């Protein structure tokens, strides 16, 4: 992981984005860019029928950035797809990767998992609120895990967090100017909010929120709504299998993959020891 190799990685990463987004924003403003979408005067309400599609694409960006964080795209494009999706879902790729790796390492540990499902965070809204307030804390904790929890590191991380917040604001301003008010307020903003609530629901239900009496751990869901979700979002609700084997783009293929692997091994055994 890149952030393990260099102490200043994350601040340089977000700092680079801050400069890049500021330059794009300044260029759009200097050129008098009118926005991708038409003005309110030209707006037709039936365009809102496209909102479910836009939301679906936004959710797909989350599905893809998740796959990127496990290196599931071809190596040549994995980082590129991750960075592009990170711009769409606003978090940027690096923080997504840091937070998600932590989730796999410390699943449902109240103190160390960025979005643990526990007795303390059991309800959906409680869980969502805990995630919102916990993510920045976890980014800092992973830094202290690597480099030590010292006075100096605390102020270093404070400056880094400030850079990240500034980058967020400039990125959102870029989207606003690029799309124009109609595209931003009627499509991008609602899709972002629904997408955020959706990913929290995903994190919540796939750690067995529906059956608290069994305890909280990654599970596979494939009934009702989840059946549809698995068919349009690459098997995301097969989350139990995903925690077992994260390098499958579609964890629904887990059983087929394991079966094929066992058959290969059996065939090799049957062929006998090689000379
Ligand atoms: Zn999980
Ligand atoms: Zn994962």
Automatic annotation (TrEMBL):
Example GO BP: lipid metabolic process
Top-rank taxon, per record: Bacteria
Transmembrane parts of this sequence: 12-33, 45-65
Keywords: Membrane, Transmembrane, Transmembrane helix
Domain Fatty acid desaturase: 46-245
Pfam family, one: FA_desaturase
Annotated signal peptide: none
Record protein name field: Fatty acid desaturase domain-containing protein
